[in-house]
Design goal:
Helix content: 55-70%
Strand content: under 5%
Order of helices and strands: HHHHHHHHHHHHHHHHHHH
Distance between the termini: 94 Å
Radius of gyration: 36 Å
Length: 381
């Protein structure tokens, strides 16, 4: 330290005794230098303290994470034949002793429970859900759902959905028609799972569009959930929201809901061509003979893609009542209509191929080439 004493003494003298005798610009520079030195020292102290705090925090996180991880690991390896209430009574007091008033401990516990719940099914998942609610950890999810930030709301909805907190369904339905597409999607997906009594109530109030990728997500959730009570989706085919109608048509198609036949036929006069096309596709798959007349009536006013779909549907139904109509379509100027009409004739199990060979002898070379294509069994329609 004796080496630095003269230097410290010199600096002290500059700022205490000699400073008034320097020109103004030198005094300003000296003050700037002093400020910078003090700022750098404070910055280094701040960095050192922050690193110490981070180290302590990481050590604490590591310690609590290992402890909680061991407790939950013991829970999931319990024999599934054991009584659920007994397992809860065994683990609940231990988890309750955790210092959950410390934010970091509570956060680690919630994160670990969510992680375990995602990776286990059956009784372990059920036990984790029960403990999650019993420890009042769902309150954190409720707080998130009520947060003003939409990203935080989504986090809360995802947590409630994962842990199957059915009591939060009424809070979540508020966001099933939110302007934010991501929030709306998460809320709808969660509500289906959390409201077993009326999982599709959100469709009654849906005004915002259900985007195509969102429809895929909902379709997968609905079709894969074996516990879900599937209603007749025809009740929503009169919705003013075209995306709701389209989603319900896809579900009617998947579940083969014949009771929706009348409402599906009504959609042949819908203003949205995508809905009309899907309705015709379903009519063909369900082989609804009663709809043939309606399809014939609207055929001539439709665009090409709808015309070809109608021909396809009539071919699937194969009632024989419109065989003359199908035969007349091969004289159309459009190749796609000719081909679809010929495929429709071929689908008649009894007389299809014989009818095509009869037409072959009477038609043009161009049509004969198309008929050869249609009759080739190696080519799929």
């Amino acid at each position: 330290m004796s080496f630095f004493n003269p230097a410290f003494t010199y600096i002290r003298e500059i700022f205490t005794e000699r400073l008034p005798y320097f020109p103004a610009n030198i005094r300003a520079c000296l003050f700037i230098i002093l400020f910078c030195v003090v700022a750098i020292v404070e910055l280094y102290i701040y960095i050192a303290l922050r690193r110490i705090n981070q180290y302590k925090k990481k050590s604490q996180e590591k310690k609590w994470k290992a402890h909680i991880h061991n407790m939950l690991a013991n829970l999931v390896i319990y024999d599934e034949s054991d009584d659920t209430d007994e397992i809860i009574e065994h683990f609940f007091p231990r988890l309750q002793k955790l210092p959950l008033h410390i934010p970091i401990v509570k956060k680690i516990l919630i994160t670990e429970i969510l992680t375990y719940h995602k990776n286990f099914i059956g009784k372990p998942a059920e036990l984790l859900s029960l403990l999650y609610v019993k420890l009042h950890l769902d309150q954190r999810s409720r707080e998130k759902v009520k947060n003003k930030n939409w990203e935080v709301k989504i986090e809360g909805i995802r947590e409630a959905n994962e842990m199957e907190v059915g009591e939060m369904a009424d809070d979540i339905i508020k966001y099933t028609d939110d302007e934010n597409a991501l929030l709306r999607m998460e809320a709808q997906a969660a509500y289906i799972k959390l409201s077993p009594k009326d999982p599709f109530r959100f469709l009654d109030r849906a005004q915002e569009r259900i985007l195509d990728w969102h429809q895929l997500v909902l379709f997968e959730i609905i079709t894969k959930d074996k516990k879900l009570q599937i209603p007749s989706f025809s009740k929503w085919l009169r919705s003013s929201n075209d995306t709701v109608v389209m989603l319900c048509l896809k579900l009617i198609d998947h579940f083969m809901q014949f009771d929706a036949a009348e409402e599906v036929e009504r959609l042949l006069k819908h203003h949205n061509t995508k809905i009309v096309k899907k309705a015709i596709e379903i009519i063909g798959k369900l082989e609804l003979e009663s709809a043939e007349k309606h399809m014939f009536e609207v055929y001539f006013d439709q665009p090409l893609e709808i015309k070809t779909e109608i021909l396809n549907a009539i071919g699937r139904i194969s009632s024989g009542r419109y065989s003359d109509f199908l035969s007349s379509r091969i004289y159309s100027d459009n190749y796609k209509i000719k081909r679809e009409a010929l495929y429709a004739i071929k689908r008649s199990a009894d007389l299809g191929e014989a009818k095509l060979r009869e037409i072959y002898r009477q038609t043009s070379l161009e049509n004969q080439a198309i008929i050869n294509h249609v009759l080739d069994s190696r080519i799929k329609s």
